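Example 9 (inverse folding). The structure is encoded as follows.
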């Protein structure tokens, strides 16, 4: 079954925005990235979502303020449907739906 991936911004300056994930690697940050957020606490290239087969990974790209799943700072963490993570002052949720 084909799946469609989206990121919902659920808290922070861009709360309410939705972004489709349409490539195997999506870089999230402030500038010159696939998914740009208007959050001064986010690094220019802050984090990436990588789709590797059935696995979806969240990677920190050496950001200044870190990438968090819950209260845990991560360098890399698996994500699944409705996983939430925080970068800077923004919280995002991964949404997986049938395409």
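The amino acid assigned to each position is listed next.
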């Amino acid at each position: 079954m084909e799946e469609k991936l989206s990121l919902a911004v659920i808290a922070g300056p861009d709360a309410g925005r939705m972004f489709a994930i349409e490539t195997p690697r999506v870089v999230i940050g402030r500038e010159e990235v696939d998914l740009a957020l208007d959050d001064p606490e986010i690094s220019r290239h802050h984090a990436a979502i990588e789709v590797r087969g059935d696995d979806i990974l969240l990677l920190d790209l050496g950001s200044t303020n870190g990438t968090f799943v819950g209260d845990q700072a991560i360098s890399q963490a698996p994500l699944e449907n409705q996983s939430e993570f925080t970068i800077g002052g923004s919280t995002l949720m991964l949404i997986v739906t049938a395409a």
